[in-house]
Amino acid sequence: MRIDIITIFPEMIEGFFNCSIMKRAQVKGLAEIHLHNLRDWTTDKHRRVDDYPFGGTAGMVMKVEPVDRCITSLKAERDYDEVIFLTPDGEQFNQPMANTLSLANNLIMLCGHFKGIDYRIREHFITKEISIGDYVLTGGELAAAVLVDSIVRIIPGVISDEQSALSDSFQDNLLAPPVYTRPADYKGWRVPDILLSGHEAKIRDWELQQAVERTRALRPDLLGE
Ligand code: ADE
Quick one: which of 122, 157, 123, 144 has its CA closest to 13? Predict the structure, then answer.
């Protein structure tokens, strides 16, 4: 999968993609992540990517021209499954959306800044508008990083123990059960006996029961309750 991220602050998220599982996915050739500095696509001599809004409202608006030049040049090279705009008024991101997007070959993600972007970009280029939650960030960069992380980690082969991605919270509309590691007794805080019993089937039953109980207590909406 190839992901092209268009931003005015590539340095804000560059380091994130060079760590841990995001880095491993790229080294294994399973994901290519390209950051594009929008300022490289402006013909303005001061490299300005924003301007005053028509109509006199406060704040600055991202200009159509540099975004048009950048996206048009990317689209001339390959077909894209989606051109995503990160925005607080988009559809709220969730695990099923991550699963669907992980099947894509090529994605563009556009990070907004300032008051917003010239609406013509949304009308003419954007195929999906996504929010990561009901709060406003200073820009779309962190939201793009969240999307990329959740999408790339479930590409087959990225996590060596694929079972571990499948048993994540939300993959089956259940929160994950508690997990423990050694020592079995720490200051008298004991791991549940069932996990030390060696009864594989009983352990799976216990995990499912814990998952359902935690979901009912913390996120009853996931159970439709
Ligand atoms: N840009 C600013 N806030 C955002 C949010 N909550 N989700 C996605 N993009 C954003």
Answer: 144
